[in-house]
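[[Sequence with tokens]]
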Amino acid sequence: MSDPTPSRPQADEPLDLLIEAAEIVSRHTLDLDHLLGRLVGLVSKVVDAELVAIMLKMDDDSLKIRFARGYDEDVAADLRVKLGNGITGAAAASRQTIVVNDVAQDPRYIEAAQAIRAEMAVPLIARGDLVGVIDLQSTQIGAFGDQEHSLLELIASHFSIAIEAARLYRATMRQNRVLKTLSEIAQEFSRILKLDQLLSKIASLIHPMIPYDALSILLLEESDTVLKHYFGVRYDERIQWDNVKLGVGIVGRATETKRPVLVRDTHLDDRYVAVIDGIRSEVAIPLMLKDKVIGVIDLECEQVDAFTSQTVQTLSLLAPQIATAIENACLYEQVAHNEARMERDLAAARALQENLLYAATPEFPGVEIAAHNEAALEVTGDLYDFFPTPGLVVGNPYRRRERQGHRRRALRGARQWAAPQSGRIRPVARRPARHDQSNVDGTQDRCPLPDGDLRAMAPHRARTCNRERRTAAAYSQAERQGAGAGSRRHPAGATR
């Protein structure tokens, strides 16, 4: 945080300043930004300095400006000093206050602004550990004397423990948010089965925990050579990016190595491929499922060092749940797609079957016909049709007969034939069994009368029984006579 308006020192006595420092520390609310702002205001009362910065130690043993006054915002956001580099880094490494009243004579000086002539760095030490450094820079040569040196060291000793406590409190709160987010994600993921809704929910849950300027989720295609962009957001607006080849850029590298990739400054990393203007830091976490990479989640920010090793740790805890939820959503969409395709195919098959069936049964003089087809499943291959033939209607054979040493098939039943002259239906029995021949089940056929349906259709049946027997005998005789010639002849007077 940066406050560009410098504050001039007041005519406060050193004892009053120390009492004020003690009161601020005793009443602080574990709000780090508020605490650092009060510290900068108090330091500005001690010494006349154009630039005042509170630099805190990061996880990678570097110093980063956490609160500043008089600095350009871009400089304050990007400035990072390794331990041992510059005057500030030297004070942090030695844990001793360093005063340089003419920076032109000290090669360790790192220029932060023009016209700076003097610099003083006071380390913040809490319980023997380095917390950070108070850095002051002035445009006047010899701006820092022994009194300012001693007073700032006393103030630093008061604030060091308070700053460390505030940082621990913030880390604890962040960890609680991570655990809460994990719980929310587990609950939300069990209810969301649509992939697009799931990815949008992931982005909304991560942002309060890890601030970012852009987030994208890419999934590995079946070819295992291309990462397909499925979801992207920047400033709460959906965006679409190009696909990424495996091994290309930060995202491709994280997928290829199956390990997180953290880039604190994209301008210093050759692997970075610019997709969005103004991005200065990036972190990519592979999404693993049973030791197999299914995709990657990528966060980008316009500030240098926006992501830390703690960011990587947090995202690594979230990654397995995200991967599982994405895999379930993809399987659900695949099943839904297959069901929709099957329903379309069944609808087309039903339409085809309906077109092949009659909309209405044909009409025949003197005969009422009805037909109905009801599929056991959605669609079957059952069809029916009507074949108009002159004077012939074919019925179904209802029994077969077997006997060793005789003909292997014998038709038993009734065939219906129509007499167009009279318009009546005459049943004809063909090849009745002799009285001395037995069926397979031991029963004997006496008279091959048609079944009950045919008798109901022919009321004159009793008067024509003898005629049927004579007709059947004529068929039998004709078949025996024509068997040797390889042809079948009809007896005179018989109609088939």
